[in-house]
Write a structure and sequence with these properties.
The protein has about 230 residues and is an alpha/beta fold. The chain has helices at about 15-25, 45-50, 65-75, 95-105, 125-140, 160-165, 175-180, 205-225; strands at about 5-10, 30-35, 55, 80-85, 110-115, 155, 190.
Length: about 230
Amino acid sequence: MRALALIPAHNEAASLSAVVAELRAIRSDLDILIVDDGSTDGTPGVLERLGVQGLRFPERLGIGSAVRAGLRYASQHQYDIVVRLDGDGQHSAADIDGLLAPLEHDRADVVLGSRYMEPAVACLGFVRVAKRLLAMCLSAVIGDTVTDPTSGFYALGPDAIRMLADHHPTGYPEPELRLLLSRSALRVVEMPVRERPRLFGRTSLTPGLVVATGARVALAMVTFPLRDRVR
């Protein structure tokens, strides 16, 4: 089975070399595609030096648009599996085996990495509490347990790649992705993954963005019963 590591990146020049080196050391079987979402730092030059496959947006369109472009690339090049991870080093390549196991044993079409399954993580700080509340709301709306509504670490099988290449949410997409998946026939499971700090820089998930994302997701949840199923 052909597998692709998909890494959306915006101004992650300082981290990408380490992220790619870890991937190659632990999962050398994965091809690597980095989608440069309009970076204004040295990211384009880093991609040339790393020798990975790359797509570049001339201006920033948002992480969801970058992921959708990567999934279209994967679909066009007939990849069977896509592993989506961040370019800031927060996701450990050592967790990829756990994400792929349900796909390889045909128990799921989508495997979402969760930082909050085990061991139990205390809810400290505004952002963590907001995530907890968002997880509770999503769980109630879709009728399934959501423990990590903002995780960007997941694995997709061929059916999920084809569907999401056309329908993956844009913007800051993870909570809306969970709503979308619940309106599909895809089998979705969560698997525990570890949480690591960024290698460099600051997270884009500020309190203001959490509030804005929460408002957008709240609207999506209100309209959820009216949505058609996706294929």
